[in-house]
Design goal:
single chain, mainly alpha, 2 strands
């Protein structure tokens, strides 16, 4: 089948290499979004709990209980925003396609709102503090959806060739996975620079106020804007869009009546609790590794494992199909989480645990390439299947449908993770100006480990169930793509 994406041939000595410049540009754009959004949820939690109202006369226990409500409400707002944005994306018409305007005009507002998340008002009023957290984080989620959701759709419109499309989505999502750890690299570098300028004691006071989080966010905002502009400059939408009039009720019907799209979305919802390990990762870094910047020490091996596994997943999907790949990697994920818990309990929370913990963390990360990549390829395939059946090409609604379930899952993840970390674990916040995080007892550390391993393992197992009913195989996908190309052609280069 004809190839459409732009490439560049490089000559190094006698060897010739083909560089997928357009797919890489797509990946750079997703890297930029992840650089900002990948670290925000977990660090927003610690900012709200530990720093935002640290020196105000507010009940810290009540505040800790409220955080789960904040993330639940913001998640529900984001879920509704996904459908609304999906409808609007499908109605968008421009010379450069339906995706371009959303990224171009949405990325700067996203950056501004992201900065506001780490700028808390000075107040002793619990209700005002509560309203601020709910409003500012809900606004952040909506702004993120308005950019991230359309950008995710690009994989379905960049080429009508399904193999080329899968490769582009694979490359882009590897970049996105790397970007999710990028914000933590920025945090470490910013912290080192602040220590050099302020000295150790000065930095301790600044860290206790969350100043390092504010500066790091500003750096990530600038990076996000620059990387998204690179994507816009070097990519093109080639699959023609159709102009349907779709209302909100019809949109929900669309999302819930397409079997394969629904199964992919339900898998995301069923596995919502797999993400609660992120809520505990910062505190495991602080109390196990000794520095919050070393959260990267936890997530970097996991991130490397994710990147490696995405290459494996990309190859495996072509051999055994997307459905079987998802199931195999999910079962592997359950086993890896259980092994990490068993080894950690055997060794105990002492310095000898650090190396084996990080090594096993790499192998835990191998499962993430599956959940980061396979659903996106499946959704792009669902877009084709739905177009063949209905004559309507609605990338916006298909990705919004998945995004609806994804945001609901994120809301549950945020609420559950916040409850487990700040309430169930017995976590104690610091009241000392020069101490960012208070010491914790052994029971709390063990519960952090359970949040990081056993609880996610249970939900990884649950996410397999909907996938058992997904039936869009490789042969069927190829036939659908050929029929669509014959029916409607493609946008010429």
């Amino acid at each position: 089948m004809k190839k459409y994406l732009k490439t560049k041939t490089l000559h190094i000595g006698k060897k010739e290499f083909t560089l997928p410049v357009e797919a890489l540009s797509y990946g750079i754009g997703l890297f930029g979004i992840a650089l900002l959004s990948g670290w925000m949820p977990e660090y927003a939690k610690t900012y709200f709990a530990d720093f935002a109202f640290k020196f105000q006369n507010i009940d810290k226990n009540a505040l800790a209980g409220l955080i789960s409500v904040v993330f639940l409400i913001a998640g529900i707002v984001g879920a509704v925003a996904e459908i609304v944005i999906g409808i609007l994306v499908d109605k968008t018409k421009s010379k450069k396609g339906k995706i371009y305007p959303w990224i171009k005009f949405g990325v700067i507002p996203l950056g501004i709102i992201s900065m506001l998340v780490f700028l808390a008002p000075k107040t002793d009023n619990f209700y005002l503090a509560s309203a601020w957290m709910i409003i500012v984080y809900s606004l952040y989620i909506m702004a993120c959806v308005a950019v991230e959701s359309p950008a995710g759709c690009f994989g379905a419109v960049c080429t009508p060739n399904p193999d080329e499309r899968s490769d582009a989505i694979s490359i882009a999502n590897i970049f996105r996975s790397v970007g999710q750890s990028g914000g933590m690299v920025v945090l470490i570098v910013v912290g080192l620079i602040m220590k050099l300028i302020m000295g150790k004691d000065g930095f301790a006071v600044a860290e206790g106020k969350g100043l390092d989080l504010q500066i790091s966010t500003a750096v990530c905002v600038v990076g996000c804007i620059l990387f998204m502009m690179i994507m816009l400059h070097n990519t093109k939408e080639r699959v023609p869009y159709t102009a349907e009039k779709v209302n909100l009720i019809e949109s929900f019907k669309f999302v819930f009546t397409n079997k394969n799209l629904l199964m992919v979305s339900l898998a995301k919802l069923a596995g919502f609790g797999r993400g609660v390990y992120g809520a505990a990762s910062l505190y495991i870094a602080i109390y196990l590794l000794g520095d919050k910047g070393l959260k990267l020490g936890l997530l970097l091996p996991m991130g490397i494992g994710t990147a490696v596994s995405m290459l494996i997943v990309k190859s495996l999907m072509k051999k055994i199909g997307t459905k079987n790949t998802f199931i195999v990697f999910s079962l592997y994920g359950v086993a890896s989480f259980v092994i990490l818990f068993a080894v950690s309990m055997l060794i105990g929370f002492r310095k000898e645990l650090i190396i084996p913990f990080l090594i096993i963390n790499f192998f835990v990360g191998l499962q993430n390439g599956n959940t980061n990549l396979t659903p996106h390829v499946m959704i792009a395939d669902c877009v084709d299947e739905i177009e063949l059946k209905t004559g309507k090409r609605q990338e916006g609604l298909c990705y919004a449908g998945y995004g609806l379930f994804s945001k609901i899952a994120s809301a549950f993840t945020g609420a559950l993770g916040s409850y487990l970390v700040f309430k169930w674990s017995g976590y104690v916040t610091s009241t000392n100006e020069a101490v960012a995080y208070a010491p914790q007892d052994e029971k709390t550390l063990i519960r952090f480990l359970i949040i990081y391993t056993i609880i996610p393992a249970c939900f990884v197992l649950l996410q397999i169930i909907p996938m058992l009913f997904y039936d869009l195989n490789s042969k069927k996908k190829e036939q659908i793509s050929k029929e669509l190309i014959e029916r409607r052609g493609v946008i010429a280069d």
